[in-house]
Structures are given as C-alpha cells and as structure tokens.
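Dear colleague,

Following up on yesterday's call, I've attached the two folding results inline so they're easy to grep. Please treat them as preliminary; we haven't cross-checked anything against experimental data yet. The first protein's sequence and structure tokens come first.
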Amino acid sequence: PVSSRQAFPLPSLPRKQPTVLVVCGPAQNGAIGLVCARHLRIFDYEPTIFYPKRSPDPLYRDFTTQCEKMDIPFLSYLPTEVQLINDAYNAVVDAVLGAEVEAGEGREPCAAILATLKHVRIPIVSLDVPSGWDVEAGSSGGISPDVLVSLSAPKQCARRFLGRQHFVAGRYLPYDVQKKFELNPPKYPGTECVVAL
C-alpha cells in the first residue's frame, strides 16, 4: 500500500542523500517494511534494511529475496550508538511491531531495537501502529514517530498520535470491508494511494 514517495514527503529527505533505514520485525509489519523498502528503491531512495529475526513464511522470504535482488543492503546488526544511525540516514521506517502484536512480542530482538529507536534524532515513519504502542490504547512507552502511515484505516491508537503528519494508505480497501466495519475512508485525489489526514 505504501507505493509512492508521497508517503514520505519529509523535508529531511533531500534527493542528494535520500538514505532510509527500514527496521523490520518478524511478523506482518516486518513484511510490509520489506515491501516499503522495495518501493523506496524504485523511487530512487537508498534504503538499508535491518531484519534480524526473519520469518520462515514463504511470502516473507520472497519479499526478502526481491529486496536482495534489488541490491538493497541488509545490516547484520543495529548500531546501539544512536549517533551512527543519525549520521548515516535521513529517516527510519519503523516496521518492527504492528497491529498483530501479541503478548510477549516485545522480547528480543524487538525490545533492544525499540530502546535504540527511542533515542534517534532523525525522523521516524511508523507503518500502521507505532512500535511499542497498544493498538487500542496508544502509547505506553513505545516510540514517538514523526509520521504515521495507517494501513487500510487508522487504528484506535492513532487518536494519540502527536507527530507532524498522519497518512492513510487504504484506497483499495474493498467496499464490503468498508461497510462491515463502518469505515468512512477519505477521498483519494487522482491516482494517489496515500492521503494526508
């Protein structure tokens, strides 16, 4: 769903050095991060992926292979010295934990990743639900992203989002799903797949 650079209209992403660190968790949100990295590469950004706990799911393995074949580098470890991340990248895409998080999901390596991301000074773009947030209640010690890209529709926790920009990527949400959950999606201009809220 995050298929254009319109999802990342950050002034801090100059075209001269459009480096983005995409941090992926082991579940569905991590797979979405892999897809995001692929799209960033297509739009001439320079993504690097940190994906420490790879899923055995064949679809997720296919996404990983696609990224590798696009020459997107994978980090073998996430620097714990935050200044190294701040100096090397213009933004971080948070695809660590998402709406599917279950109890106990905060265990390693996710807990260490979140501890590091809480201290970066470059913009963080969270996909669907900011990592460490409860999908209903909102933040409970999770990260504080600058941008939130809600997938399909904003989750309940988005009410507590205090960052600079909030987008929704849900243009292709089937009408029966919209009706079933009584969703009122925004109007998408032209051919845009993402719209600012």
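Below is the second protein, in the same order (sequence, then structure):
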Amino acid sequence: AEAAAEQLQLYRRDPGGWRGCRSTGEVAVSWRPSTEFAGNLYRGEGILPASPRDVWECIKPVAGGLRTKWDQNVKDFEVIEALTDTISVCRTTTPSAFMRIISPREFVDVVVMKQYEDGTMLSAASNVEHLLCPPRPNFVRGFNYPCGCLCIPVPG
C-alpha cells in the first residue's frame, strides 16, 4: 500500500510525457506509456467547486461510501480486512458492460488513505491476494497496478 502511495506521488511530481486525449469543460484525460507494464497510464483531472473535504467524501474508498452511488463503474466496494485505521484489503466489483459482452470484474487490492501537510488527500491501491477473498464464479478477477485518487486543494 505504501509503495502504491509513493508511486502516485511520483506520478504527481513528474508532469512530463502526458498527452491529452479527451477534454470537456470539467475534466481533462491524458495518458502516457507506463514504465511498469506494457500499456498506458491514464490520468483524469478536474477542478470542482467544493471543499476538498466534500470531494474526498465522494471518492474515498470505504464500505458504504458515496462512490457506489455516483460511479457507474463501481457496483460494490467491501472491506475484506482492516489492517490499520488507514490500510485495508478491499474488493471492488464492476458491472458487466456493452450488453454483457464484458463480464463483471472483481479487484482485490490493498488500499491506503493518507492526508499530507499541504491538505492533499490520497487513496492508493495495488493488487493483492487474500485468503478470505478467493475468486468468485461469474466474475473475472482483475489486476491493478498502483492506482488511486488524489484530492488536491487549490487556492480559493
């Protein structure tokens, strides 16, 4: 979990190489080749007219949180084991897509939540196997490289 958090901070500190691919008035999505796997990293950025704490309440990875209510790609989120008050092993399930052509997925990750001195809040996750969370039938087990969300306060 700590390694995933550090990886996200490295992405934040290294702004080079990102190429824009989609943009609306609210969100900009960019990508760059990964140095960890044969594929691309994707980053979505936007400024919301809300306090960082209110935004964090919408995105933080907790059971019963708001993410499953607004994010159509997150069907369920459950804590398998709380290791500390900021680190847990969690299962995220996604719905099927494209008229069920893409099967539902489940991801098992170790997740850490942090708050930094500048007010930034972070959730970082990376794939893990856990004895209490074997693969389930009717789900494809997904694999996450270090990933997560940053909620960064901006002046005003």
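For the second protein, one point worth flagging: The first helix runs from residue 2 to 13.

Best wishes,
A.L.
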